[in-house]
Design brief:
Length: 181
């Protein structure tokens, strides 16, 4: 009996250690992006609109990122010799999704649901802000168009205080249930 309890406790410790390591890995910020994407070259350099590559921002809840095939519309020619564009082409040729790491994420953060099962849920729609509200992307994401390095951490972290400041200033609802449901 005593041995069985010891064995059980042993496994419990192993389990806790595994859970701890997974949690630590998931909590490590600044995850690299699969391709060294440069916003500055596209936005300030080539004069592209944000919603050319993030079309969902006008149409729905998620902004999204266009598929590799869409990028190849330009990159069959543009900078075709760049090693980063070759990576892009390899994804497109395989018809594969580019595994971009999502940086701006409203709760619940699915990767942490295991640790925070009661995390708040946020009701957020890009379309509502970008189209209906005519809010500029920079109000929530900072000057992305200046960045020459990939986005690996939020310039303006998502905070309730920030949502509320703008809603108060513009006389938009501050009812808890508008954002939490
Ligand atoms: C409308 C045309 C256009 C589209 C669409 C486009 N790009 Fe580009 N891209 C460019 C131009 C122009 C450059 C700058 C080339 C230069 O500086 O020589 C560039 C540069 C790049 C570079 C840097 C190349 C280097 O090493 O300097 C990468 C990587 C890249 N684009 C990836 C992407 C990805 C990923 C997408 C899709 C999400 C995309 N591009 C969509 C036109 C485009
Ligand atoms: C040519 C395509 C292209 C254009 C134009 C573009 N983006 Fe992006 N955007 C990307 C790609 C690819 C990523 C993922 C790589 C990275 O993080 O840099 C990205 C990432 C982002 C992210 C981080 C997304 C996340 O996962 O949290 C934000 C925010 C963003 N873009 C905003 C903008 C804004 C604002 C503009 C206009 C000023 C813009 N983008 C213009 C292709 C584009
Ligand atoms: C009022 C604030 C606000 C504005 C304006 C805004 N965003 Fe976002 N954005 C957010 C929030 C909040 C998230 C996280 C949403 C989530 O987790 O579902 C996000 C996530 C994203 C993401 C990654 C997840 C996704 O939805 O694909 C991209 C890319 C993005 N935004 C691009 C843009 C672009 C481009 C614009 C302008 C056309 C824009 N955003 C305007 C607040 C904003
Ligand atoms: C820079 C200003 C600004 C910021 C920041 C902002 N909002 Fe908004 N929000 C607006 C505007 C403007 C509208 C009204 C759009 C319309 O006319 O439909 C709106 C509308 C909404 C609505 C719909 C309200 C209703 O009456 O049904 C929700 C929900 C919402 N926002 C959630 C959020 C959340 C969550 C955040 C933070 C992550 C946020 N907003 C940040 C400006 C902002
Ligand atoms: C305009 C949108 C908006 C409104 C209105 C709003 N919240 Fe939030 N709330 C958020 C966002 C976004 C987050 C997640 C980011 C953060 O934790 O700051 C959040 C987070 C929270 C959290 C979790 C904080 C944490 O650390 O986990 C609580 C609790 C909360 N809100 C309660 C409320 C209550 C109560 C009200 C009404 C008095 C309210 N919220 C109104 C957007 C809103």
């Amino acid at each position: 009996m005593k041995e069985r309890i010891h064995a059980l406790l042993g496994w419990l410790l192993v389990g806790l250690a595994v859970v701890g390591v997974i949690g630590w890995l998931q909590a490590t910020p600044g995850s690299a992006q699969p391709i060294a994407f440069d916003h500055q070259k596209h936005v300030e350099g080539a004069g592209l609109e944000c919603t050319l590559c993030h079309p969902g921002a006008r149409e729905g809840r998620r902004a999204g990122i266009v598929a590799a095939g869409e990028c190849m519309g330009c990159h069959a020619d543009a900078a075709a010799e760049s090693p980063e564009v070759k990576k892009l082409k390899a994804f497109a040729d395989r018809g594969q999704q580019i595994p971009w790491v999502q940086v701006y994420k409203a709760p619940p953060d699915d990767s942490n649901m295991f640790f925070r099962p009661n995390a708040v849920r946020i009701n957020f729609s890009h379309q509502r802000h970008v189209e209906a509200g005519a809010v500029d992307c920079a109000a929530c994401h900072g000057a992305v168009g200046h960045r020459s390095k990939p986005v690996t951490s939020p310039e303006l972290p998502i905070r309730m205080r920030r949502c509320l400041e703008c809603h108060r200033a513009r006389k938009i609802t501050t009812d808890c249930l508008a954002c939490h449901r």
